[in-house]
Design goal:
By secondary structure, the protein is of the alpha/beta class. The protein has helices at 15-25, 41-47, 67-79, 94-102, 115-144, 150-162, 179-188, 210-215, 232-235, 251-263, 289-294, 300-306, 323-337, 347-355, 361-375, 396-417, 422-429, 433-442; strands at residues 4-11, 29-35, 52-56, 85-89, 107-110, 169-172, 197-201, 240-244, 265-267, 274-276, 280-285, 309-312, 344-345, 380-381.
Length: 448
């Protein structure tokens, strides 16, 4: 029987309970972690994605009123509001367990438990947890992706064509443009949408942990390997793995990554067993990988393997028409998050936002709106609330000059890439041939 790719955390101060539950749940779930000291819960949740917490309500002998369980339930929900928790209690503490349900627990079970009923409850809760996360994620992505600019419409068009396929996708673009959002959007519109979406920031992986994090490890493989552990590739089995910042992977590790991507097989650290994986691969970078390959700092065979379909996320400077709907979305989102009234923003302030160059792209817009929502006085967003000087309007000319320079550079770069082909260049830039000619004339590049 194939195990469910899920991570279960069991918290109980009795070693025999932890052993019994781990043996039972390991039959159905890939990863089962145990914790006998609730003070370690925070550390575990901060570094591990947990699908379900199964927690006892009493941790010290002589204290059987369940109050500790309620305390740690609140702590977990404060740290991870979306955490799904099942409480374990004795018959005499049912009333306290019901209080736990009111505070956010999903359900409770009585000790001693029925094995079959427990397995069914855990499976249903894991399924519910993933469904809830996907619904929240999908709602957020749909709004985050709102836009009608030519640049983002081009991305929509390509995304709709490739989502249902299993083609390997490389997402390019500046930091903060929403590359990870696009990767999730592709997954959620694919035939794999009910399976896991696993995101890995390759740029932040410690070189010494590269293989164990991606491919997993066997118990005893190294000093701290106290149990068999699934890596990110296996966790994504049946679904999609998103490898962000792939351009930052050191050259000497790229071969191992290529082998896993190319063969759809991995070997856990400390094992010889080859494990087949059924995954779709999406990668992203803000680097020019083609140039990096020419310079010998990125493997050319890896570049070609991940570059079946390439999509470039436009910068916010290239989608100015979308600043207004994105601003409206963030105003509502952060007002709800902080339980505040949605503040107003004047047409004058919006115009200044549209004239700003947004080097940090959507991420910068998001951060500035969050700041403004918190600091707004009289329910009105001001330039100062957004973290700008009051004289931002006077810098518009400077910004426009900067934008013109960047636009010219982009056109020259794309023309060079397509060897002067106007049609292909216009399509790449998301504009018409006529518009491209006008811009070339404006920037005096008709003869270049």
């Amino acid at each position: 029987m194939k195990k469910t790719q899920a991570t279960i955390l069991i918290i109980d101060d009795q070693e025999e309970i932890l052993i019994a539950l781990k043996l039972l749940l390991k039959r159905s779930f890939e990863t089962v972690l145990t914790c006998s000291d609730p003070k370690k819960i925070r550390d575990i949740l901060l570094v591990t994605d947990i699908d379900l917490v199964l927690m006892d309500m009493n941790f010290r002998r002589g204290y059987e009123d369940g109050k500790e369980g309620i305390f740690w339930l609140k702590e977990i929900k404060n740290l991870k509001p979306t955490a799904h928790i099942i409480l374990m209690t004795s018959f005499g503490n049912v009333e306290t367990a019901v209080e736990g349900l009111k505070l956010g627990a999903i359900d409770y079970i009585l000790k001693p438990w029925n094995n079959e009923e427990l397995i069914l409850l855990v499976k249903d809760t894991v399924k519910q947890h993933r469904k809830t996360n996907k619904q929240q994620q999908n709602n957020k992505l749909t709004t985050m992706f709102a836009g009608t600019s030519a640049a983002i419409e081009k991305v929509y068009k390509v995304t709709n064509r490739i989502a249902k396929t299993d083609a390997t996708v490389l997402i390019l673009g500046e930091n903060g443009t929403g590359k990870s959002v696009l990767a999730q959007q592709i997954h959620l519109n694919s035939t794999r949408k009910e399976a896991p979406f696993i995101s890995v920031d390759l740029g932040s992986l410690n070189e010494n942990l590269f293989e164990s994090e991606l491919f997993g490890y066997a118990k005893g493989a190294f000093t701290d390997a106290k149990q068999d552990t699934v890596g990110k590739f296996e966790a994504a089995d049946g679904g999609t793995i998103f490898l962000d910042e792939i351009g930052n992977v050191p050259l000497h590790l790229q071969g191992k990554l290529l082998q896993a991507i190319q063969n759809k097989e991995i070997v856990r650290v400390g094992e010889n067993k080859v494990r087949a994986i059924d995954i779709r691969i999406i990668t992203a970078t803000n680097m020019d990988l083609e140039e990096a390959a020419k310079q010998g700092v990125f493997r050319q065979d890896l570049f070609y393997r991940i570059n079946t379909i390439a999509i470039t996320m436009p910068s916010l400077r290239e989608r100015k028409d979308d600043i207004k709907p994105l601003t409206a979305y963030f105003l509502t989102y952060f007002a709800e998050k902080y339980d505040l009234e949605v503040p107003e923003i004047t047409a004058g302030v919006l115009e200044q936002l549209q004239n700003y160059e947004w080097r940090g792209n959507i991420r910068e817009l998001q951060n500035r709106i969050e700041r403004a929502v918190i600091l707004a006085e009289n329910n009105q967003i001001s330039i100062e609330n957004l973290g700008f000087d009051a004289v931002i309007a006077k810098t518009d000319t400077e910004n426009i000059h900067s934008l013109n320079d960047m636009e010219r550079q982009k056109i020259v770069e794309r023309l060079h890439f397509y060897k002067g082909n106007i049609s292909k260049t216009a399509e790449d830039l998301g504009i018409s041939r006529a518009a491209l000619y006008r811009k070339m004339e404006k920037h005096n590049i008709l003869n270049q």
